[in-house]
Amino acid sequence: MKPIFRIGVLVAAPFAWASSASALDLPKVAGKPLKLEITETTVVSQRFDAREENIPKDHGWGAWLNKLNAQLTWGKWTVGTRLDSGLYWLRPEDREKCADCKFKPEDQNNLELDGSTRFRNNIYVAKMWASYKAPGIEATVGDAYAQFGRGLTLSFRKVDELGIDTTIRGAKVSIQKDPFAVQLVAGFANPTRVDEATGTALFASKPLPGSDRGAVPVYGSDRVVGVELTSGRGLPVVLSTRAVRYSRCAPYSYDGKGRIDDGILSEPFGSCNATDTSSWLSGLPRETSPTRGTNDMDLFGQSFEIPSLWGHGSLYVEGAVSRRHEDANPRDANVDGNALYASLITSVGKLTNTFEMKSYRNFYPVSGAVDKLASTFNIVQYNAPPTTEPLIQDSMFGFFNACVTGGRWRSDVRLAENFLVYGALGYYHSKSEIVGGECDRFGKSVGDPTKDTHTFVVDTLSGFEWRFNKDRSQFLASIGTRDDRRGNGNPYYNERALNYSLALFLTGPFSLEFSGRHRIRFWENENQRGEPERSVPWAQGYHITAFKIAPKWVISQGIDYTTQRGFPTFYLNGGLLYRFTSESNIKVLVGQQQGGLRCANGVCRVFPAFEGARAELTLRF
Asked: How far apart are CA 527 and CA 144, in angstroms?
């Protein structure tokens, strides 16, 4: 079967199956109805060949990714599973190599190495669970999301914007009996194994042709045990105490030649043998995270909350301490860290104030044990210290939050029922944003004293929200600045930004929307031009125009642009969304989208540029 025909069959199959599955009438069991929910998500994409400024190996390939999610509910019980699969074609390592081709013969070895963890045809059980839920108790065996407090000590979650979907595969129990509550978790970290944007997979790598190295693991066996105790639920003051332990084992056992044993009878949950674990952790890249190669990491936290300040606000304070241990470096003295986060909200009349502060000292996120062959998954982490900054902030570089003190104040004033204005000011002092910067548990710098690694940030934002035309139209707009300077006063990074979203009701089902973000950016050592070369500012942004025909159709056109050296200037795309029902739809995108660093709530990753066509079908029944 030719690849194109095969793809067509795979895309068409869910349509055919939907009619029969949605018509399924499950009988009652013991007098209780059975409820079956199925979600089918299929993505087919084909990248165009790279433009001159783009990296060839990130373009030209195609993929079909499918996620089938099924959930069966009977009374207080629920069981479910998600089956993921993928099929790739036109892999760079399989493409023609010649002197005038995109890929040269001398590229083959590097392409095979890169392809050992990318473009892997697969089918696997991504998630599975069984849960029981009744008033005051909820218990899950299998995969579960969990977060303690604001995320300082534990946060297993899904972040669609970054392709993150990490659960605990084990057990989770929550018991509530006011004024007390307890939450227990134990199991293995289970991130999604395939990254759509790059084709990278967390499966053991393919053996390289002509090499006796064999398969190489790229993700470890990370374990977690945690407890959260809460008292005061429903009372004026709520106290919570948390304790979490993370530990790492090798994903496989190793034979006498250092090769992994991935046979059927090998360790199904990894090997905690000291030699196997040491062999695995010793090869992990420490430069991407000081916690990546640690054997164990303990975190303890305490929070204090006043849910209502006389009906005019709330107060939340959370602190945590951490200690990491690495067998390979037992004499490391700088293993302790601590963090303090606070949020105060006040509301009087038309004025609402929100103040958030943070003080983190040698407090690094607990990173997943990911090998450099799958560096795309460096974003896998098991806690998420609050940033106090806007959710999409993408200018906290390096380990900005590891050693930082600062806060952000925002005031909202509702001048009228349909008109709100706001302003925000943030100030931060980081000792770890620049490479080489570190601090100890007291906040004292311990990095290279000859380097100026301190940065001081002033971040401002002001804007308005206006609803008009009987609340059928709205206009949101804001302007922001960020000034990030070294301790000597020299600029490290700065930007000026304009953000807007205008939704205009036209008539009947028709409406028009405009949205965009436009920035002037400067970053030390980036966009160097002139003689001699020096860093100069560049423009970067996007604009999207969408025409909507409620409730079925959305037709959009977008343009991304950048004047940064080394990248294409313009990226043009068009999109179409059609809703079969409120929960089932198909989305099509054709064209180009700019890559680069994208962030969501302090977690950041670099996306490659997309140039091609992509169709996503979602069916729920």
From this structure: 44
Q: Tell me the mean pLDDT in the region 131-153.
A: 97
d(Cα 76, Cα 176) in Å, to the nearest integer?
16
All residues at 6 or more sequence positions from 318 whose CB lies less than 8 Å from its CB, including other chains? 149, 150, 152, 301, 302, 303, 304, 340, 341, 342
Average pLDDT, the chain: 91
Average pLDDT over residues 305-313: 96
Residue 87: Cβ within 10 Å count: 19
pLDDT, average across residues 201-210: 86
- Measured from the Cβ of residue 333, the count of other Cβ atoms closer than 10 Å reads 7
Residue of 68, 126, 63 whose CA lies nearest to 92: 63
The CA distance from 339 to 321, in Å, is 6
CB 60 within 8 A of CB 102: yes
Token pair listed for 246: 């993370």
Which amino acid makes up residue 543?
A: H
Question: What pLDDT does residue 597 have?
Answer: 86
Give the domain 129-373 fold: Porin (2.40.160)
- Extents of the domains making up the chain: 1-105, 129-373, 387-621
- Tokens of residue 405, six digits: 């003190």
251 neighbors 219 (Cβ within 8 angstroms): yes
